[in-house]
């Protein structure tokens, strides 16, 4: 599979939902496969909170491949021998697209806390500018999970003729207090971390010390991304063999797991990006600026495919069923499908249990 990483720079303003703007911006993205002559074989992949444009394939120096490598590749459900797949890094995220640590052209300094709050619609608007630059005016499908699913819904509502198929996994039409509450742990922990210095942290401090506040936020995140059953199966009440049972800070395996994954997170993810992305997810509401959410979904022209996971404790299956019910209420039952996957990995099942939904996606994409 051919992987290419590219950057597009836009010396034009991006007008944001908030009324603010980014004077200029850039997007880093990866593509897989070949664009056909009439540019009609595009599939757009949207990533979640800590994901990146590196969705598939493996570079020579990498221990692990891209985050959806099981799903995207030659002969895989998103078949790169057939489709030209694009995954761009969301603006706001710290993997290379414009983000809070980018230079603000008006001050020539990093934006940091002066970066504007972004909405999902801003991220999608920026991506649409990328496709226009590439001469791409429509896609076979837009596919994303979690925050990527929010983007997929946004495409369906705000760019109704862009994609024929919208596949949204493990997501919601509007973020509920339960999810906002989990994010709050991270937001508070980061803000009160002395290394954070109200966003003016020294980059070297971060490299040397990590940011414990971000690690605590990730720990809260990991709990709601996984599930009680997964924890029971994975760890049981096993105790770390290196630790003493009567040592105060001796750890159960589950604690060791959380520590490992949480404290490694600040090594590759920026705390300001984390704060801004949490805000973007928290304020997502597909019904914003409409009298009722039905008015938003009434605009959808694509086929909308919803894939929920039975043990998702961040965006519960009921939240996806609600979208299905709205479409049915609107008389669009022929335009919506809903599939509930019996999952065992919680919200992150969309990342790890690909074998349970890949055939469903193959079926959706068949002959398209
Ligand atoms: C679109 C996107 O969202 S992309 C972003 C996806 N990435 C993330 O969410 C980042 C966090 N990663 C994870 O939570 C997981 O890797 C998942 C959910 C993506 C995948 O889960 P799994 O494949 O089941 O991996 P698992 O949870 O077993 O292991 C994750 C890590 O914990 C380690 N680990 C597992 N058990 C233990 C334990 N008892 N103690 C300490 N560490 C442990 C593993 O060795 C692995 O380490 P590594 O990343 O250095 O290889
Ligand atoms: N675990 C994924 C999904 C969170 O919604 C991430 O970190 O992006």
UniProtKB/TrEMBL annotation:
Pfam families with a match to the protein in the record: Abhydrolase_1
Location, primary (coarse class): cytoplasm
Domain called AB hydrolase-1: residue spans: 41-210
Family stated for the protein in its record: Belongs to the AB hydrolase superfamily. MetX family.
GO cellular component: cytoplasm
Known function: Transfers an acetyl group from acetyl-CoA to L-homoserine, forming acetyl-L-homoserine.
Lineage: Bacteria, Pseudomonadati, Campylobacterota, Epsilonproteobacteria, Campylobacterales
Example GO biological process: homoserine metabolic process
EC number(s) recorded for this UniProt protein: 2.3.1.31
Pathway: Amino-acid biosynthesis; L-methionine biosynthesis via de novo pathway; O-acetyl-L-homoserine from L-homoserine: step 1/1
Origin species: Arcobacter ellisii
Subunit field text: Homodimer.
Record GO terms (molecular function): homoserine O-acetyltransferase activity
Protein name: Homoserine O-acetyltransferase
Reactions performed catalytically: L-homoserine + acetyl-CoA = O-acetyl-L-homoserine + CoA
InterPro entries, sorted: AB_hydrolase_1 (IPR000073), AB_hydrolase_fold (IPR029058), HAT_MetX-like (IPR008220)
Cellular localization per UniProt: Cytoplasm
Binding residues for substrate: 218, 348
Keyword Heme attached: no
Protein's UniProt keywords contain Acyltransferase: yes
Matches recorded under SUPFAM superfamilies: alpha/beta-Hydrolases
Keyword annotations from UniProtKB, A to Z: Acyltransferase, Amino-acid biosynthesis, Cytoplasm, Methionine biosynthesis, Transferase
EC class name: transferase
């Amino acid at each position: 599979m051919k992987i290419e990483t590219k950057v597009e720079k836009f010396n034009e303003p991006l007008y944001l939902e908030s009324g603010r703007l980014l004077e200029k911006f850039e997007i880093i993205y990866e593509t897989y496969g070949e664009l056909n002559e009439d540019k009609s074989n595009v599939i757009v992949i949207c990533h979640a909170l800590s994901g990146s444009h590196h969705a598939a394939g493996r570079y020579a120096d990498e221990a692990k491949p891209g985050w959806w490598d099981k799903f995207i590749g030659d002969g895989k459900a998103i078949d790169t021998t057939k489709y030209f797949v694009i995954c761009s890094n969301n603006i706001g995220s710290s993997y290379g697209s414009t983000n809070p640590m980018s230079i603000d052209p008006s001050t020539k300094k990093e934006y940091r806390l002066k970066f504007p709050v972004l909405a999902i619609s801003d991220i999608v608007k920026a991506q649409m500018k990328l496709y226009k630059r590439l001469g791409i005016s429509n896609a076979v499908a837009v596919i994303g999970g979690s925050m990527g699913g929010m983007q997929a819904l946004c495409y369906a509502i705000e760019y109704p003729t862009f994609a024929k198929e919208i596949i949204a996994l493990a997501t919601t039409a509007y973020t509920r207090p339960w999810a906002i509450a989990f994010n709050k742990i991270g937001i508070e922990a980061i803000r009160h971390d002395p290394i954070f210095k109200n966003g003016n942290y020294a980059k070297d401090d971060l490299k040397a010390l990590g940011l414990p506040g971000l690690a605590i936020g990730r720990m809260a995140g990991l709990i709601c991304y996984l599930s009680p059953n997964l924890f029971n199966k994975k760890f049981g009440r096993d105790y770390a063999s290196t630790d003493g049972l009567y040592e105060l800070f001796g750890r159960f395996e589950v604690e060791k797991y959380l520590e490992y994954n949480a404290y490694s997170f600040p090594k590759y993810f920026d705390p300001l990006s984390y704060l801004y992305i949490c805000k973007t997810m928290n304020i997502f509401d597909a019904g914003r600026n409409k009298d009722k959410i039905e008015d938003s979904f009434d605009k959808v022209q694509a086929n909308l495919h919803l894939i929920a996971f039975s043990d998702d404790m961040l965006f519960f299956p009921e939240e996806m069923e609600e979208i299905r019910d709205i479409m049915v209420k609107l008389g669009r039952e022929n335009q919506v499908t809903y599939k509930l996957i019996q999952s065992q990995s919680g919200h992150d099942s969309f990342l790890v249990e690909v074998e349970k939904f890949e055939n469903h996606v193959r079926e959706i994409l068949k002959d398209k």
